[in-house]
């Protein structure tokens, strides 16, 4: 498969539900005496892809945990389609919201197909079996992340990147109106990073996604929300948010930001302190950082 672009197929078979609006309203989170997130507000309109960025420890995962109902806010609210997410049952929320986290702690003796089929659980009653529709949906979702060939493999023997793609497929089978993803490109090679984020862009669902790669975030997200020390320090379209000054202040790095001539998205080139290995002089402008395929 190397050398050819990853082909993803947008899963179409079962209609997607209406994308929902997400509202995070002045959410504050603490753990013991430690404040993890301070008065964070953000909105994601139906179908929008919102990127959550910020340095290590800035509160991205904690905020996502409040959205997917694992960390209860001390104050503020999370609204999913207008309803208080913490007032819904986990099952009610799971009918609307699918979550992809980095380490879901699943070392189950299940095949990939069985793991992906778990995405249908919120839509079933207790003793409902899997239907032919479910099987088709599982197959489509696996194909959408270039993982059709993994269906019969034991989930716990997959590589990191394979696991990640399977967990994304499970989220797709859930047919959510809102997707919450914590570093979904973690472990993925560059082709699969582009394919997964491209798929996210294409889907009708609303998405809140924590990302470290600022160039990918700039290209694939409608808006970015930048966290530092648990608070929002900038929010808006990538072209407005990703400035050289912000990158210096928030990340403490020297960078150049230009509009990429082919993609039209902001492209960040980080300028390390010393010359790169094998080069005689300083890093020429515009040579660093991945350029997402247009
Ligand atoms: N349960 C907890 N108890 C105490 N501190 C916590 C807890 N969970 C997270 N933290 C701390 O809160 C801060 C924010 O953590 P969080 O995981 O939300 O950051 P992040 O932005 O997702 O970081 P990274 O980019 O490294 O994944 C960190 O300093 C972390 O150590």
From TrEMBL:
One of the Pfam families matching this protein, by short name: ABC_tran
Which CDD domains does its entry note?
ABC_Iron-Siderophores_B12_Hemin (cd03214)
Q: Signal peptide span per the entry?
A: none
- Example GO molecular function: ATP binding
Does the keyword Acyltransferase feature in the UniProt annotation? no
- PROSITE patterns, A to Z: ABC_TRANSPORTER_1, ABC_TRANSPORTER_2
ABC transporter domain mapped to chain residues: 22-254
Q: Which UniProt keywords apply?
A: ATP-binding, Nucleotide-binding
Q: Which InterPro entries match?
A: AAA+_ATPase (IPR003593), ABC_transporter-like_ATP-bd (IPR003439), ABC_transporter-like_CS (IPR017871), P-loop_NTPase (IPR027417)
Indicate yes or no for the key word Nucleotide-binding: yes
Known SMART domains for this protein? AAA
The name this protein carries in UniProt is ABC transporter ATP-binding protein
What is the scientific name of the source organism? Streptomyces pyxinae
